[in-house]
Write a structure and sequence with these properties.
The complex is a heterodimer of chains A (265) and B (281). With 265 residues, chain A is mainly α. Chain A contains eleven helices and no strands. Chain A is globular. With 281 residues, chain B is α/β, with parallel strands linked by helices. Chain B has nine helices and twelve strands. Chain B has a six-stranded mixed sheet, sandwiched between helices. In chain B, strands 2-1-4-5 form a four-stranded antiparallel sheet, covered by helices on one side. In chain B, strand 9, helix 7 and strand 10 form a beta-alpha-beta unit. The longest helix of chain B has 18 residues. Classes of the chains: A mainly alpha (265), B alpha/beta (281). At the A-B interface, helix 7 and helix 8 of A face helix 4 of B. The complex binds adenosine-5'-triphosphate and magnesium ion (MG).
Chain lengths: 265, 281
């Protein structure tokens, strides 16, 4: 009993403790070794710069730009991923023709196409949304496809023996079996959507946290650069956390969720 | 091929008809059913010319070695697998029209599969209530019914448990409750008690016997266990492997309901010995 309570809180206490400890070591060694703040500023300096940045409305505008791009791009990726995943999962000849193409597009480093998207869709938010969508689309789509193909034949037998209609099979069986696959795809996809938006902002335009990173770099503002990275991490973490919460809510019965709740005492 | 009639199949029994609830009405008729699987070059004759008539209210046990076609026969009868030839008649109407099933016939069936096949996203109550949900029974009504059935199979305290929290035998009992929830006229069970301990198994055997006599449901019961086959069945059908055909039909000839004590009687022991000899021979 005591053991399991300890385990339950370990990730909440342990991880922050390790981060604090690392920051302390960082702070001390940078000061002792007199490293230039241009190369590696101490955490305290980054913290101060972060507080300054957070108070500027400009920072919030840039953050909102990135958040908007990720939200729209990711949503589109989920919609398209589900659509194509289900389509290919249901129609065999379509799967046979298109699946190799999708796999190929997924495994070639598609981030290399980012400059192309900037040329095609401009320097505004449009091109970043497209990039986020493209990157997040593949894992979602391929996972949904796998999910549709993985519906348990025994479960299908049960539905057949009960004379279930197509709609009943869909809502009581198919949607629910695909859900864990969709959410696994979304977990990967949301991370890629954030990466896509940031890389897009590096390359073109004058908005978003990616742009802010480039600007602080050009100004040789190393503490600022680190501070923006901190903001970016928080944004990424919130997105990931939202997918995780969605998972807990939608598939509480699934192993991946169930196991993490620690029921054995 | 002649129909294996009840009396001629077993020389050991007395008058075959007098203990059976209504021996005259044929509930289900298996007419010359064959099934051949073809996977690449490999042909398997899983069933070959099976003929059998089962009376309303009768319980028939199906035994045979692993791989002799018991599940295949049950799947053909459940409308899940079209026969290569022959047909199944339920109350005189054919189940198969070419390789399409008549859905109105399916409505009368309750099926318990060899695997429990519970839906992991539903709790015990919702799993049992699924057949009623598909029929449009409202939520309070079907949950009430599901809880009664859960009680019946001895899962009273587990209404809200998910399948992954149950043992194999408990899952199988949920599957049985699910199959009973629509009040089927014909119950097809594929080794439903295989995962149960001897004590629970005995209890479930008695429960199944009680249900079948009380509701007049016709039962086809697949098992590996000879003693269970004899205890539950009015008749025991023995299949032989490759090709799967009916090797022997044994009339048990002991009136139902039977108490557990019947298993110690000489008559019971004799049936078991005979079946065991036949299976090994
Ligand atoms: N879908 C299938 N495709 C090809 N062959 C099959 C298929 N299903 C069953 N068979 C074959 O048919 C034969 C009978 O299988 P079946 O599952 O009916 O056996 P069983 O009597 O239920 O065995 P057990 O007692 O082990 O459950 C086996 O030889 C099996 O290999
Ligand atoms: Mg079987």
């Amino acid at each position: 009993m005591r053991n399991s309570t300890l385990q339950k809180y370990l990730s909440w206490i342990g991880a922050p403790a390790v981060i604090v400890l690392l920051c302390l070591i960082w702070e001390v060694s940078v000061r002792v070794m007199e490293v230039s703040t241009l190369i590696l500023p101490p955490p305290s300096m980054i913290g101060n710069r972060l507080i300054e940045l957070v108070q500027e409305s400009d920072t919030w505008n840039h953050t909102m730009t990135t958040v908007t791009e990720v939200v729209i791009g990711f949503t589109l990726a989920v919609l398209l991923g589900v659509f194509f995943g289900v389509l290919l999962g249901k129609i065999v000849w379509l799967e046979l023709t298109l699946r190799p193409v999708f796999v190929l597009l997924y495994i070639i480093p598609n981030i290399a196409f980012v400059p192309l998207f900037v040329i095609w869709f401009g320097f505004g938010m449009g091109s970043k949304i497209v990039i986020a969508t493209v990157l997040a689309f593949f894992p979602i789509m391929l996972n949904v496809l796998l999910g549709v193909k993985s519906v348990d034949p025994g479960h299908r037998d049960v539905m057949s023996s009960l004379n279930a209609t197509k709609a009943q099979r869909f809502s009581n069986l198919e949607v629910r079996s695909v859900m864990p696959y969709l959410l696994a795809g979304m977990e990967t996809g949301v991370v890629l959507a954030v990466i896509g938006a940031i890389v897009g902002e590096y390359l073109g335009g004058n908005e978003g946290l990616g742009y802010l990173i480039v600007r602080t770099l050009n100004q040789m503002d190393a503490p600022g650069l680190f501070a923006v990275i901190v903001i970016l991490s928080v944004v990424g973490l919130i997105f990931y956390g939202m997918v995780f919460l969605l998972k807990r809510f939608l598939i509480p019965w699934h192993e991946s969720v169930y196991a993490s709740r620690g029921v054995s005492v | 091929m002649t129909q294996p009639s009840q009396a001629s199949a077993n020389p050991g029994s007395s008058v075959a008809g007098d203990f059976r609830p209504s021996p005259s009405r044929v509930k289900i008729s298996i007419d010359g059913v064959s099934k051949t699987f073809q996977v690449k070059k490999q042909r398997t004759e899983a069933l070959k010319d099976i003929n059998l008539q089962i009376a309303e209210g009768e319980t028939v046990s199906l035994i045979g070695r692993s791989g002799c076609g018991k599940s295949t026969l049950l799947r053909v009868m459940a409308g899940l697998l079209p026969p290569s030839s022959g047909n199944i008649l339920v109350n005189g109407s054919p189940l198969w029209r070419r390789s399409q099933v008549d859905t109105s016939v399916i409505e009368q069936l309750g099926v318990v599969f060899q695997e429990a096949n519970l839906f992991p996203w539903f709790d015990v109550t919702d799993n049992i209530a699924l057949p009623l949900k598909l029929r449009g029974v409202n939520k309070t009504e079907r949950r009430k019914r599901a809880r009664e059935l859960a009680d019946l199979v001895g899962l009273g305290g587990f209404f809200n448990s998910y399948p992954r929290e149950l043992s194999g035998g408990m899952r199988q009992r949920v599957a049985i409750a699910r199959a009973l929830s629509r009040g089927p006229e014909l119950l097809l069970m594929d080794e439903p008690f295989g995962a149960l301990d001897a004590m629970t198994r005995e209890k479930m055997n008695l429960e199944l016997q009680r249900i079948s006599l009380a509701t007049q449901v016709t039962v086809v019961f697949v098992t590996h266990d000879i003693s269970e086959a004899v205890f539950l069945g009015d008749r025991v059908i023995q299949l032989s492997p490759r090709p799967g055909r009916i090797e022997e039909i044994t009339d048990v000839g002991i009136a139902r309901p039977r108490s557990v004590d019947v298993q110690t009687t000489p008559a019971f022991g004799e049936r078991i010995r005979k079946l065991r000899d036949a299976l090994e021979g």
